[in-house]
Design a protein that fits this description.
By secondary structure, the protein is α/β, with parallel strands linked by helices. The chain has a single domain (13-120), classed as Rossmann fold (3-Layer(aba) Sandwich). The chain has helices spanning 18-30, 42-51, 69-77, 109-120, and strands at 10-14, 35-39, 56-60, 62-63, 66-67, 82-86, 102-104. The strands form 2 sheets. The protein has a 5-stranded parallel beta sheet, with helices on both faces. The chain has a two-stranded antiparallel sheet with strand order 4-5. Helix 2 (42-51) runs parallel beside helix 3. The radius of gyration is 13 Å and the shape is globular.
Length: 121
């Protein structure tokens, strides 16, 4: 099930729902990502961004009551492409991020793959 667009790439997944995080991590590893790094909080994600290189990232907008905007800002400053995932009908995004791709929760695995392919191609 490996995908050539993903082979050898490094991705950061920021999600506070552990079951979702585990499923995404396993799926992306199966698709050929060299590393799938996960964070459940803004603080964890920012520390990882400072310490590692990522080809792309996926951010849950709402992390247990905190918005992931500081993570988005850190990624944008490093020119790392990212998409948001959210269950909010209006996406709950600041105007600054309205142009970023959004996965509407619940999303299908194919939608995640399509979104990440778009980011990395």
């Amino acid at each position: 099930m490996e995908n050539k667009v993903f082979t050898g790439r490094h991705i950061l997944i920021v999600e506070d729902e552990m079951m979702i995080l585990i499923l995404i991590e396993e799926m992306l590893a199966d698709l050929g990502f060299a590393s799938v790094t996960v964070a459940a909080t803004v603080e964890q994600a920012l520390a990882l961004i400072d310490a590692q290189f990522f080809d792309a990232a996926m951010l849950d907008v709402n992390l247990n009551g905190s918005k992931s905007y500081p993570v988005a800002e850190a990624l944008a400053a490093r020119r790392v492409p990212f998409l948001f995932a959210t269950g909010y009908s209006d996406h709950g995004l600041r105007d600054l991020y309205r142009d970023r791709p959004v996965l509407k929760k619940p999303y299908k695995p194919e939608e995640l793959v399509d979104g990440l392919e778009h980011l990395l191609s």
